[in-house]
Design the sequence.
C-alpha cells in the first residue's frame, strides 16, 4: 500500500461505523435508464486484463448481469456465493448467460472467484465508467438483514471485510458504490433492470432467473460459520 493509500485507508474503514440502516420491508424498485447506444462500446476487463466490449456480452444471448459493490463487501460475497449455486445446466438449458461485474481492479477477479466459488463469467469496471453511465448509486448505506442471500450479521460481516482489507493492504473498489442488475439480450433488448438503493436491496436471485426463463434454485438462509 502506498503512503497516500495508508493515509486514506483509516478514514475509509472508519466510515463503516457511519453506515445508515434502512429497514423498509417492501422498498420500491428503482430502475436504470439503459441507453444501449451509450453503453455498448464501453469496456470491462477479464481476469487477464483483456478489454471486453460491453455490448458483446449480451449480443448473441439472453444475459443476467449483476453489478456488485466492492469485492471486500461481505454482502456481495454472500450474494455471489449464492449465484455460484445456480447450476450451469439450468443456464445452458434456458440458453442464458450469467455475468457478474465488479468495480474493482481486474487483478482481484481470481481471488474473488476462489473466495465465493463462483465459476461463471466475472468482469470488472475499475474506473466505474459503466456504473456511472447506468446511474448506479454511490453512497454508503447498509440495508436491513432480511435478504435470504445474506448469511452474516452486520457486525461480523463488517469485521471480516476490514480484516480482508488489512490482509490485502488495498481496497478492492469504491466502498460507497452500490450495485444493480440487468436481464438483457439477445442484442439491445432490455427485459429487466434494478438499481440497488443500499447494500442489501439486491434483486432476489430467483427473480432474475424467473425473468430470464431459468429454473429456480433453493437458497435457504444459510447459518454456516464462515472463515475470515
Sequence:
Amino acid at each position: 500500500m502506498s503512503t497516500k493509500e495508508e493515509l486514506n485507508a483509516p478514514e475509509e474503514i472508519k466510515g463503516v461505523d457511519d453506515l445508515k440502516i434502512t429497514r423498509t420491508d417492501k422498498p420500491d424498485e428503482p430502475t436504470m435508464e439503459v441507453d444501449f447506444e451509450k453503453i455498448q462500446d464501453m469496456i470491462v476487463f477479464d481476469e487477464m486484463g483483456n478489454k471486453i466490449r460491453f455490448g458483446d456480452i449480451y449480443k448473441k444471448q439472453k444475459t443476467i448481469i449483476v453489478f456488485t459493490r466492492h469485492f471486500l463487501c461481505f454482502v456481495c460475497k454472500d450474494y455471489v456465493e449464492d449465484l455460484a449455486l445456480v447450476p450451469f445446466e439450468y443456464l445452458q438449458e434456458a440458453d442464458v448467460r450469467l455475468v457478474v461485474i465488479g468495480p474493482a481492479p481486474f487483478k482481484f477477479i481470481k481471488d474473488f472467484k476462489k473466495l465465493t466459488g463462483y465459476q461463471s463469467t466475472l468482469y470488472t469496471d475499475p474506473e466505474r465508467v459503466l456504473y456511472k453511465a447506468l446511474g448506479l448509486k454511490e453512497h454508503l448505506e447498509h440495508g436491513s438483514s432480511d435478504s435470504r442471500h445474506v448469511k452474516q450479521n452486520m457486525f461480523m460481516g463488517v469485521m471480516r471485510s476490514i480484516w480482508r482489507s488489512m490482509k490485502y493492504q488495498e481496497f478492492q473498489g469504491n466502498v460507497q458504490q452500490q450495485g444493480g442488475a440487468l436481464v438483457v439480450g439477445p442484442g439491445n433488448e432490455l427485459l429487466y433492470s434494478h438499481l440497488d438503493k443500499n447494500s442489501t436491496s439486491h434483486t432476489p436471485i430467483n427473480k432474475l432467473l424467473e425473468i430470464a426463463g431459468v429454473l429456480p434454485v433453493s437458497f435457504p438462509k444459510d447459518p454456516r460459520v464462515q472463515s475470515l
